[in-house]
Design a protein that fits this description.
By secondary structure, the chain is an alpha/beta fold. Helices cover 49% and strands 13% of the residues.
Length: 386
């Protein structure tokens, strides 16, 4: 049968892959707890909210105001102005005058062996006095109970680090096509239980949009100083927590934290290109094989249905398998987009999304290995093939 239908085996593999991904995503969506579910606190420890900011005039006001509006009883907000050349410093100065809980510090010159954000976060840590350290980005906006829910979740789960999946606000067409799929593959490829105690950083899920640590746990890992040359700070810190025998937890934070990371194709490419190849462990064969297979798996069924009017081609069985694959793909994307509050009308364009994120991933590989990857006008470390 396979000899008479060369498409049969590939279609069987694609159907199997899609059904496995659909099953894993379904399990993960049922397993993943919502940060909003945690409310009750037995002990209210002081929280230091730490925000690095470099040329964030469009975002920093809304971010800081949302954090100063928290219903938590004891916290401070520290923002490091990391050499901004726009109005970030002016906005922060005005906010600090109005609220003594906000402390603004100026970043020191970047040492040659540090990544910019990591150096900023290390300085923020040294300026803080909280028992709990919450790192977040300047492009986030927080619900009034974010600190309370985060502290309650950390306490209830007896965790040494927690992170979230935030809600992504999407404006441009590029954002709507690319941002959702960037996280979907991670969420649908491994059960959540594997991600909490992984054997490889490529399995981990974490987000720098919110990372909360007890101070002692953060210090035990070496903090940002211990990962000063590694691009993926969120995954590296989670990996260090787990490697130290401590407890890491991930939550659905879409009701608490929203963000708009990028505004156009240029920003999106720069941001995702710095992360994609490192997220594959700087492994060239793994990156090539993974992205080529993903493109084949999502595009082949669509192409088969598109040419079904050709005489006796594709065979009926392969055509049926292709239809099953497409239905499974649509269910996968629809379920994920519903859960994480993403635009449903972009779901039918999922093959295009796959191709775009693949192009960014190959660009990430080239830029990283050639030493041309940048972020916030600073060069990132050149990485060698393992």
């Amino acid at each position: 049968m396979i000899a008479g239908d060369p498409l049969l085996l590939p279609n069987l593999l694609i159907v199997l892959c899609m059904l496995i991904m659909l099953t894993i995503a379904g399990i993960n969506m049922r397993t993943l707890r919502n940060l909003k579910d945690y409310k009750n606190l037995e002990v209210r420890r002081r929280i230091s909210v730490l925000i690095p900011a470099r040329n964030e005039e469009e975002n920093i006001g809304a971010c800081v105001r949302s954090l100063l509006g928290q219903d938590y009883p004891d916290f401070q907000v520290i923002v490091l102005n990391d050499g901004s050349t726009d109005d970030t410093g002016k906005i922060l100065a005005e906010l600090a005058k109005a609220d003594s809980r906000l402390k603004v510090i100026s970043g020191q010159p970047l040492p040659p062996e540090w990544i910019g954000k990591h150096w900023a976060c290390h300085q923020l840590y040294r300026a803080s006095d909280g028992e709990l350290l919450l790192f977040t980005d300047a492009d986030t906006v927080h619900a009034p109970d974010t600190l309370r829910c985060s502290a309650a979740a950390l306490q209830a789960e007896k965790a040494d680090m927690l992170s979230i999946i935030p809600r992504h606000k999407l404006g441009s067409l590029a954002e709507k096509l690319i941002m959702p799929i960037f996280a979907l593959g991670v969420f649908a490829s491994r059960p959540l239980s594997d991600r909490l105690r992984p054997r490889s950083i490529t399995v981990l899920s974490a987000s720098g949009k919110l990372m909360l640590f007890p101070r002692s746990s953060y210090e035990a890992t070496g903090g940002f100083e211990g990962i000063r040359q590694f691009v993926l700070d969120d995954l590296q810190l989670a990996e260090k927590i787990i490697a130290s025998g401590m407890r890491y937890r991930l939550f659905d934070g879409t009701d608490n934290v929203s963000c708009r990371m990028y505004h156009n194709w240029t920003e999106l490419h720069e941001g995702l290109a710095k992360n994609s190849f490192p997220a594959c462990g700087y492994n060239v064969p793994l990156s090539f094989i993974t992205w080529l297979w993903i493109n084949f798996a999502f595009w082949a069924p669509v192409i088969e249905l598109g040419v079904h009017k050709m005489p006796n081609y594709p065979p009926v069985l392969s055509l049926g398998l292709a239809a099953i694959s497409i239905i499974a793909s649509l269910l996968l994307f629809t379920g994920y987009y519903l859960r994480f509050k993403l635009p449903l009308y972009t779901v039918p364009f999922y093959p295009v999304s796959v191709s775009l994120i693949t192009a960014i991933s190959f660009s990430s590989m080239y830029l990283t290995l050639s030493g041309r990857a940048t972020w916030k006008d600073r060069k990132l470390p050149k990485s060698k093939i393992p």
